[in-house]
Amino acid sequence: MSLPSIKTLADLKATSWKSRSIKQELRENLIQKLRNKETFFEGIIGYNQTVLPQLMQAILARHDILLLGLRGQAKTRLLRSLVNLLDEYMPIIEGSELNDDPFEPISKYGKHTLAMKGDETPIVWVHRSKRYSEKLATPDTTVADLIGDIDPIKAATKKLSLSDEEVIHFGLIPRANRCLFVINELPDLQPRIQVSLLNVMQERDIQIRGFSIRMPIDVGIYFSANPEDYTNRGNIITPLKDRIDSQIITHYPKQLQTGIEITQQEAWVKRGTVSVEVPFFMKELIEMISFEGRKSEYIDQKSGISARMSISAMEQLISAAERRAIINGESETVTRLIDLYSIIPALTGKLELVYEGEQEGSANVAKHLIGKAIRSVFLTYFDNPQPDKKKSPVNSDYETIANWFSHGNVADFEDLMSEKAYRKQLDSIPGLKLAATKKAIPQIDSDRYVLMEFVLEGLHQYSKLGKQSDDSTISYKDMIGSMLGNFSFDEDDLV
């Protein structure tokens, strides 16, 4: 007979099921999964050598845990994944609001039911997905929310004395008995509210107002927080910090490839409308924007740049290509370099700027980061356009291209340009195809054209080509001609 089919205490006693604390349950199930080499932190990328070993060691030590890190570092996802270490089902006394253990009830209701019905005490089973509770720490959170309070309405309705345990309205933590309870953004919790957690953390019991009751609560309490020097909204009080056994520091992706994998996992890329191909170097460009931002002098580094920025940017990039394909009646398309500038709305709202950045403006800072990313990724696929200024003003690989522009030719690209017109424009520039494919090998034919556009943008970023742009068009031209084009003359000025 399977455990969930057991309905009474007598039947439960006849099985091998035994009571154990929530921390012991996590520990024993983790040990079993490690022995079986099972994967249980699904969707967590980039922490295999850093955060995950520390987290597993804390679980083995039966510790309460604080995950400390900047925004967008998967702290909440990590904590939610702990539910995979719980038993699939847990028995409780039917009707208990505190998940009373049938063998060791803690509430008045559970004890009374067990005393009255004995082995006929009815049992229900709770799936592990229901054994996780979460609270975002907000300034208006109260002790009653977390621990509980006396409910005078319940006392009046049931005609009970205020000294009766049954008039207590239990908070989130008692209701998470034998479960996992997570508090996100812990520093936002007011100090006097944090004090209410001290007994739960150390003595593992709760006290409600002046009520003469100490109820042993078996709950795994975990926290997430941003560094205190960033939040400026409050601190974790020292006695509470002292009671948190393990503090684990999270981090942003350390390798570009790791960031790309996270973005590919989280971004909405399969739309079901047109087929949008994203060349690998475009994925690198999207991720490199975040990497450049994390060291930019315009960005508040205490705030950080969330992985959500890369995810939103990728979705915007795909949407720009998708829109163009739909308008042109094309069933498939490839993201282009001009599409990169459509992601600016995905960047500006996620950049916390310092004073210098505010002076530049969020849109200009976003364009600056895009340019820096292009310069960085360009050199992984192509030669430096100007390796040695003393030998040559421009790399010989790009000399034919530069000469074509120096004769007054201009290459115009519109964001809604059809694939046919796009290819025709690129094919008209001598030497561009050879420069684009000399080192970088396109996976498909359409990638070759995006590489050709990448060469033009790279030459501009390294000041070998001029560029003028508006909301929907980019024009590449000779550097000198571009600078002269920025000057306008009035006939009256020539008198």
Protein architecture, described:
The chain is α/β, with parallel strands linked by helices. It folds into 3 domains: 3-249, Rossmann fold (3-Layer(aba) Sandwich); 252-381, Orthogonal Bundle (Helicase, Ruva Protein, domain 3); 384-488, no CATH class. Helix content is 41%, strand content 13%. Helix 13 (256-266) packs across helix 14 (280-293), helix 14 (280-293) packs across helix 15 (307-327) and helix 18 (362-381) packs across helix 22 (445-461).
How are the secondary structure elements laid out?
Elements: H1 9-13, H2 22-35, H3 51-60, E1 65-68, H4 75-80, E2 89-93, H5 108-117, E3 123-127, E4 132-136, H6 143-146, E5 148-150, H7 152-158, E6 168-170, H8 172-175, E7 180-184, H9 191-195, H10 198-202, E8 205-206, E9 215-216, E10 220-225, H11 228-231, H12 238-243, E11 246-249, H13 256-266, E12 275-277, H14 280-293, H15 307-327, E13 332-334, H16 344-348, H17 355-360, H18 362-381, H19 399-406, E14 411-414, H20 419-427, H21 432-437, H22 445-461, E15 466-469, E16 473-477, H23 479-485
Parallel strand pairs: 1-10, 1-11, 4-7, 7-10, 12-13
Antiparallel strand pairs: 2-3, 5-6, 8-9, 14-16, 15-16
Helix pairs in contact: 13-14, 13-15, 14-15, 14-18, 18-22
Whole-number tally of structural domains: 3
Shape: elongated
The appropriate CATH architecture of the largest domain is 3-Layer(aba) Sandwich
Poorly predicted ranges: 487-495
Helical residue percent?
40-55%
Strand content: 5-15%
Number of helices: 23
Report Rg.
31 Å
Biggest beta-sheet profile: 5 strands, parallel
Number of strands: 16
Determine the N-to-C terminus distance: 103 Å
- Classify the fold: give the CATH topology of the largest domain: Rossmann fold
Side by side, the strands of the main sheet go 4-7-10-1-11
Query: What's the CATH H-level superfamily name of the largest domain?
Result: P-loop containing nucleotide triphosphate hydrolases
Please state the average pLDDT score. Answer: 89
Q: What CATH first level of the largest domain would be assigned?
A: Alpha Beta
